[in-house]
Every structure is written in structure tokens, then in C-alpha cells.
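REQUEST FORM: STRUCTURE PREDICTION
Request ID: SP-0412
Submitted by: Lab K.M.
Chain count: 1
Length (residues): 795
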Amino acid sequence: MADNCFHCGQTIGKERISFDSKEFCCNGCKSVYEILNINNLGNFYELNKNSGIRPDESSTQFDYLDTPEIFERITDFSEGDTTLITFKIPVIHCSSCIWLLESLHTLNANIKYSQVHFTKKTLQVSFNHNELKLSELAKFLTNLGYKPVISLETADRKEEKLDKSLLIKLAVAGFAFGNGMFFSYPEYAMEFFGYTDFWMEKYKNLFRFIMFLLATPVVFYSASDYFKSAIYGLKNKIVNIDVPIVLGILVLYGRSIYEVMTDYGPGYFDTLCGLLFFMLLGKTFQKRTYNALSYDRDYKSFYPIAVTKIDFNGKQENILLSDLKIGDRIMVRNQEIIPVDAILINGDGNIDNSFITGESAAVSKKPGDKIFAGGKQIGSILELEVIKNVDQSYLTQLWNKEAFRKHETGLDTLTNTISKYFTFIILGITLMAGIYWARIDFEKMFQVVSAILIVACPCALALSAPFTFGHIMRILGRNKFYVKDTLTIEKLAKVSTLVFDKTGTITHSKKSNISYEGAKIQEFDLKNIKTLLKNSNHPLSKSLYEFIGVEDEYFPVENFADTPGKGYTSEVRGTKYKIGSASFSSQTSKNLETAVYISKNEEFLGKFIFKNEYRENLGQLFTHLDEYRIHILSGDNESEKKKLEELIPHIDAMAFNQDPESKLNYIKTLQDKGEKVAMLGDGLNDAGALKQSNVGIAVADDTNSFTPSSDVIMNGAKIPLLDRYINLSKDAITIVKITFVISFLYNIIGLTYAVMGQMSPLFAAILMPISSITVVAFTTVATWLRSTKYFSING
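STATUS: Completed
RESULT:
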């Protein structure tokens, strides 16, 4: 019997569906399989086995998309019977997804074409809106397992300002380098092989002039960022790595012009173009971060674009969230985010505030209670009255607080620290050598000075960090640890204190450890209880439904009565049951215990106790982190304190009942003591702490879902490997330092010969790229070897 779903590849739980000699984990996966086969698209599975996406079974409403104002806001183009729209679909992950989504026209005749932009995780669809409503298109995609994300952020439809200037600069340098080598061939043939030719001799000046024309835009356009950075650094009294690089570029360029003008030689235009090409290639490689992930998200990422407004006659109307006013009444359905601070008018509120507070338990609300934006309703439909506009709600104000914003620069990096001393040393050597040779041979003095500045250009030094950190970022990302930039790797290597949020970070966000205490419950009663649990939307009821291991049978439910915040009673097969809190079953609960109490015909049977389920292998992780100070923060109560002390024997401190600002202040206090802090959290309640920390690590079981602004986005299942990520970051610093040593050895040897007057500028120009190639080759091999120590080759 198959253990994994044929469609999505996920482990099959208690719900197992057999169809067409295949096993599926849910009806959604089976339905998608049927759709694909009916439409002769069965080769979807041949492209990539188990590449399907499990359809979202939540009752997502898309009807609001057909409202004219909303339709106009989110569509790209609409005229005649044709509409063009771009959906954000984060779950696109492989070639099979692309193939299926670009074959939508074969599944629905009203879809004209569809095109995937893989890196942006977007799908552009052209469809006949007269025959296929926008809401129906969204539902169609959801049923296939590709639920579109439609929020305030995606609705803004801001054009991504992709900075293409770096690629253009790289292209210019590459063009000049390639053609420059071609035009330099006659000079190399004459210089190294003694080959002479009448036509080569006659047109060498033309070739040299063409080389000058090719190199000039490379120096003043392709290298412009280095000039700007050097000037910016000097203005701020900082000697960064770009200062000696610019000096080397200018000397190489100036010396080449001098040689060509005086017919002394061909110059080094080709070498200059080649060096800048490889340096820009390193910079491009460094910037290849994970654009599909967003490290700077805000509340717009999960706020809905529209809400259902209700008038006093009960008439419903879908309106833009931005048009919502104080006093309006809105409808919030099961699993929907509450977008504004409001008062509950009708319905039984069962609010999951874990995203804001970190508190894992749902909060019951009754009419008249205040509900904050950012909570999620779990259960029946609510009617709310708006008391604050979107931009004035608690959630928005919390996000916009100055304390929740991180301000930093990348000036204090390892490379720039070394370059401060490197530049002054090179200038000092150049000055002394110039004075010495001016007294002995004034003509040779220019050759010596040129050779020193050319050979000492820290190009290899500048390449080492981008290539090393670029490789490390790629390796970490392949292992689901997505680093925002190279500076983060340096900061991660310096961390001395690790602060973990509890709920959803070191515990599973959607799992609980359930145990039972009480009299044995017979199978007859268990089946009846499971039937009752199926009728409840409360998260504890859902968890308990999955936990009870009897066959799922549905029996008629009679006299169902729900008491908000307490529990519910009902009769199944002639037996009356009570399911709910301790007081609801006339029992006394233990302090800080989360439990569901069961009574049968007014007789207490027992209770199911819920405890957080911690992620696997945490004990081993914390053993490996014994060199760090460990702190735990939680919005929950102290019920798990003893468990945490057992899990982390060397824990430094724990703090419970922490609100967002308390977490931020906790981090700040540690930093005031000189600690370098990395914070791991999963929700908005951790946003301030993540930004305040030296390294903010947002934990998400689905890295495409909403995560707070951070330096790193980490897959929750990979938390037990945290020590490996940190150790690899430390190894990256060691590799960079070794490449610095290699670069310095080249410089020391080259400088020795240059100062002694035994190195020509031509040989210096050849030695410089050799050192760069050596550094790039070493860092590529070294990072690969170190990564295999911590991770498998395939990630």
C-alpha cells in the first residue's frame, strides 16, 4: 500500500482514497488527477513525479473579484470579451507546474492562453470574461492546487523596478574584453612569439586606438559604481575596498594611454576590460539572491483587497478595503483575516491571534467585544462594526512604529576593514619606491610606480568575498535557509546569543501532543464523539478529530447547542454528550492546562490534554549550540516552562506572556550588554524583535506564505540544522580570510619584484588576473568541500 499521495507526494494520513489503482491523500488530489486524465494531460506526472500541489480545501471566497471596482483594480487589461490578469501563485515550484499552468486552455475553453513567470511566481492569463467570471477563474486555479494570492500588496501592482544597469555594464565590459583580446592578438604575436608581419606593423596603431575606444566606456561606465563608492567612502572619511581598486583602474588606464601615445607599447586595455568584466561578474553573482522571497514584507501582504459590507437591511456589497469607513458593518467568514479594529455585533467569535500575539490558543468573543485587526476567525460568520480605519488599526500602527524598523549600512564589512590598512600600505610603498627610483633612474621611476599600483590592485581581494558569499548563499538557499544579502552571513558568523520564539518556531504551528486521562471510552462513544467534533470549527476540536483513531462514520446529530467560549452539547444515536472546557463539564482544571473535557449523559468520562508538539531533534540541536547563550520568548503562559528546561539544560533565560514591544525591548536589553543577537520568530508579534536583532530569522513552514520582515527566511522543518547554517557562515569567513592571504602572497611577491625594478607593467598586468582566477577557483572548491561536511550534495 502506497505511503505517499500519487498526485502531491505528501504522506497519506488517516484519510486514504483509492482510485484507478492509485492512492491519494484527499479528494482534491484525486479530482485533479481525474481532470488531468480526462483532458489527456496525464504526462504531467512523467515530467516530475509527485510534483502536484494539494488543492486548498479551505472555503475561500472569490466572489468579490467580480465587483467592478475590484475587477478594474486587479486586472491588467480588459476590452471586448478579453481580459488579461496576472496572479501571484507562490506554490509554483517545478517544470511540471509550468507545463500544467501553461496548458490551462486545454482544460477550459474560455481560457485563451496562460504564461508563467517562474522567478516571480506569477501566472498571466487571458480569458473570455463574458463566459468565465474572474471569481470562477480563481476557483478553478484553486481546485487545481494553485491558489492565487490576492491581497493589498498584490493589488497595488507596482511595477518591479529591476535594475538592469549592472547587467548592461557587465555586457559592455564583456563585449570590450572579447573584442579587445581579438585586436590585441597582433601585439601578443609580436611580443611573445617574435612573429612580424607588414600589415600588422602597419595597422597596429589603428588596433591600439580601437582598444582605447573599447576600454574607455568600460572605465567610465562599467566601472562607475566603483568610482561612486570610492568617492562616497572618502566623503565620509572611510577608505573602503573600492578606493585602491579605482586607483588601480586609473593607473592601468592612464599608463595604457601613455604607452599608446608615445608608441612605447600597446598598453593594457584588454587586461583592464577583462578585470572589470570578472569583477562585475562577481558582483552580479553576489546579487543573485532569492527574488521569489520577500524579506521586507508588511501588513499589506496578508490584508485582503476587499471586504463584504453589510447595510442595516442585510444587503451585502463587496467594496475595496481602502473605501472602508468607521461605522461600516462588514462580514468576516471562517478562516478570514479581520482587516480592521472592530466591535463584534453578531456571531460567535473564535479568534486566532497567534499571528499578532504569539498566543497559540484561540480567544472566544461575544457580541460587544472588541476585536483587533490581524486576528483570524475560526468558525461561523461574524458581523463586525468598524471602529478604526485600516491605517489606524492596531496592526498597522504596530508595524509602522519606528522601533520596528531596522536602519543599518554595510560599511563595516570584513573586506572594507582590511582595505583601510591595505590602501595606506600600498600608497606608502609606492611613495618610497618612487622617491628611491627618482634619484637613480627618473625614467624607470614611472615604470616601477606603474608596476606597483597595477600589481597591487586588490581585484582578487574584491572578488574573494562576493564569490565566496555568493556560493554560500546558494548552498544555504538550496537547503531552505534563504539569506537576504552577504552582510547577513558576516553578521551570522559573529552571533553570540540566540533568542527563540516558542510558538510556531520551536513548536509545530499546526500540531499538538494530545494525551487522554480518564475512564476508557468505548468505540461506540468514540465514533459518536468524532461525529460531533466534525461539526465544530474550533482548532482544538479539529486536532482532536484527527487524533481519535477510529473509523470515520457520520451519524445524525440532534439538539446541537453551542455555548461560545465553553463548549457544546448534542445527542448522537440516543446518547447525550458534552464537549468543552472544565467548567462546562463541572470539573476543576489544573492551572495552565489546555484540555477538552468529555461527558456522557451528564457523567464525566475524561479529558484530552493538549501540549505543544516540539519539532524533532531539538535536543540534539541545543546540545550543538552549547557555545551560545540561549533565550526563549513566548506570548503563551508558563505551562511549558518545565519541558523547556528539560529540552535546553543550559538555557540562560525564559520570558512568557510577551507582547510584541516586550520582545523588542528584550532583544535591545541583550544588545546593550554587548551581545550579538540572532532572533528566530514566525509572526508579526516577532517583527519588532526580528528587526531589532543583529540577525532576524523568520521561520515559516511554507516559505512562500507571509513572514515578517527579516534578514533570513528559514523553513521551519530545518530548525534542527541551525547550528550547521551558522557553522557554514563561520567557515565562509575563514575561506574569505584564506583568499585574502592568497591575494596578499601574490601582492607581496609581485611588489617585491616591482619595487626592485625587475617587473614590467605588462607582466604586472598579466599577474593581476592570474591572482583573481586563483582566488575564484579556490573559493569555489573550498565552499563546495565545506558544504558537503554539513549537507548532502543535492541539498
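NOTES: The chain is about 45% helix and 20% strand.
Reviewed by: T.R.
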